[in-house]
Design brief:
The chain is an alpha+beta fold. 45% of the residues lie in helices and 17% in strands. The protein has 5 helices and 3 strands; from the N terminus they run H-H-H-E-H-H-E-E.
Length: 130
């Protein structure tokens, strides 16, 4: 699916949605994805993520600060979007107060199979309390 053009995917999707069983699965998955996105974007769940483009890295990072205890430390390999999201000021400020180490790199030597060769990534070590 990822390599199909938008028009090619539209044709495939139309064919799939013609089958009532496939249509039910498609809408159940879409409903679940919408629910997860709504929960991850909710002010009550993740106040530091208000206004930012939410992803699981940001959700996991903020949740780890909450459950890490008074002297906890969190190390994560993640996308660097935490540092450059124009609407992420609150998240960046919280990160800056906790940050012990931040390394940015590319997977040029292909040491990590799951990280794309040209994609930038960051390794951050943070304290759970600021």
């Amino acid at each position: 699916v990822g390599k199909l053009s938008a028009s090619a995917w539209g044709k495939v999707k139309a064919g799939l949605l013609g089958d009532s069983r496939a249509r039910g699965v498609y809408f159940a998955e879409a409903e679940e994805a919408a629910g997860v996105q709504a929960f991850c974007s909710a002010l009550q769940s993740y106040p530091l993520l208000q206004g930012v483009k939410t992803n699981l890295y940001k959700v996991f990072l903020t949740r780890s600060w909450e459950i890490g205890g008074e002297a906890g430390v969190v190390g994560m390999i993640h996308q660097p979007g935490i540092f450059d999201d124009p609407k992420g000021g609150a998240l960046r400020a919280a990160m800056a107060r906790r940050l012990s180490l931040s390394v940015h790199a590319k997977n040029q030597l292909k040491l990590f199979a799951e990280v794309e060769h040209q994609r930038h990534f960051a390794l951050s070590v943070t304290r759970t309390r600021h």
